[in-house]
Amino acid sequence: MARKNAKSTKESPSNQQEISEEEQWRIINETGLLKQMKTSPPTARVEGLEGQTPFAEEILNAMLLIAPFTFLLVMMDIVVHQQYARKAGLNVIVERLVSALPILSIFIYYTNKHRRNRRAQFLFFAMSLVVGPRLVWVVNRAAWGAVMQQVRCATELQEIN
C-alpha cells in the first residue's frame, strides 16, 4: 500500500500541465496581484532625508578619514624627533595624540559633514586664513627656540672642555 502512494506522488508531477510564461503573465495581470502588492520606497528616497546621511554613516565616514590623518600626525612627530636626534618614546606620542586627536576628530567630522554647504566652506576657508599664519608663526618660533637651546647646550659643553 505504501508503494502505491509513493508511485502516485511520483506520477502526479508528470500529469500537471506546464503553463507558458506568457500565459502566466496574463493570469497575473488579470487577477491584479501585482497591483495589490505594496512596494516600499527605497530608504534613500524617504521624504525629508534626501541629501542627508544617517548619523552613524557620518561617524563612519569621519573615522575613515581620522585614522590616516592620525597616522600621518604620529609619523610626522616621529620624523621630527628623529631630525633632532631625540628618541620618540611612547609617552611622548601618546601625550601628543591626547592633545591633538579630539581637535583633529572634530575638525574632520564637521568638514566631512558640511562639504556640500557653501557657507560652511567659506567659514572653513576664513578660519584657515586666520589660523594658518598663526600655525606657521608657532612652528617657526618653536623651531627657533629649539635651535637656540641646542646652540646654548653646545656652547656650554665647549666652555666646560
Automatic annotation (TrEMBL):
The lineage of its organism: Eukaryota, Fungi, Dikarya, Basidiomycota, Agaricomycotina. The chain crosses the membrane at residues 59-80, 92-110, 122-139. This is DUF7719 domain-containing protein. It comes from Thelephora terrestris. Keywords: Membrane, Transmembrane, Transmembrane helix. Residues 121-150 form the DUF7719 domain. The keyword Ligase does not apply. Residues 1-22 are annotated as: Disordered.
